[in-house]
Amino acid sequence: MPHSDIDELLPPPPPWRVFSEAPGGGADDDLPATPEDHRARTYRPDRNVVELVNAALYLRRPILVTGKPGVGKSTLARSIAYELDLGPLLHWPVNSRSTLAEGLYRYDAIGRLQEANLRDAPGTAEDDRTADIGRYVRLGPLGTALLPRSKPRVLLIDELDKGDLDLPNDLLDVFEEGSYTVPELARLPDEQHEVEVFTDDHGPRTTIRRGRVSCDAFPIVVITNNGERRFPPAFLRRCVRVDIQPHDNRALAQIVRTQLGDEAAAAAEPVIERFMAKRSRDDIATDQLLNAVYFAMSGALGEAGGQAAAEGADAHTRERLLDALLRGINSMDPA
């Protein structure tokens, strides 16, 4: 028989899985709250990370962040945007097909050609025949970050080591010059020297003059790296390198306390010990620990928060579920 009362059976979602339509209270109050907003507000980097990030801000240099999966590399960028009130994060997830041009802008030549054919059709009003090339240009995350502003934007270039071998070197000129050209706009006649284009953050269209974009404040660029390959020395020396180490027991307890409160932190000690033991053999992300602690606190495991086993699961099931939630990222063993 179908169950129609799932909203009554399930506990509230964990804070990092709340998709609210209420304002997020972050850098832009018009944006809805997201799990990323929550992570940014509760992120607690160690002192060494803070000092290196501050050095990069002073020097206006990109931050190359290395660390194991789940230590908070991407969250560091979101935390910087939140703490410094620099607006929504610009995010460029890199894959094996990513190119510098994709990060800077996208030009929809096919869409423009199709509309040109429609404009030339018989019966089209003269006012409708005027082409607006800016409607077919959208700046990418990097291109948007380099727009001239009094305050820098925060750009996350995520997992650069997954990209093409030439991509780090391609980024060097842009990082050094703080500018780029959109050739399709630079070729326009003088009477079209100003063109309004779309941006990556879907805000109002912005004006580009003679196809050239130059930043006023160099963006805060956070580049994450999972260590899958080495970068060229010329690229490395232009970045401030930050290596985020896995959290120790004390830091993990503080993370649980920040995310779930004092009661959860007190009940989480055995789960943290199990997490540390498993992490010594395989990579496990911190959010897996949070999932396990929250699951236990919810009563589903019948282990924490004074829940009786009869309300949740028997001891064997509890152990099996905890093992599954704390399964190593590289583990091939069945859950």
Automatic annotation (TrEMBL):
Residues 1-39 are annotated as: Disordered. SUPFAM superfamilies: P-loop containing nucleoside triphosphate hydrolases (SSF52540). Coiled coil: none annotated. It comes from the Bacteria. InterPro entries: AAA+_ATPase (IPR003593), ATPase_dyneun-rel_AAA (IPR011704), P-loop_NTPase (IPR027417). Residues 59-250 form the AAA+ ATPase domain. One of its GO terms (molecular function) is ATP hydrolysis activity. CDD domains: AAA (cd00009). This is ATPase AAA. The lineage of its organism: Bacteria, Bacillati, Actinomycetota, Actinomycetes, Streptosporangiales.
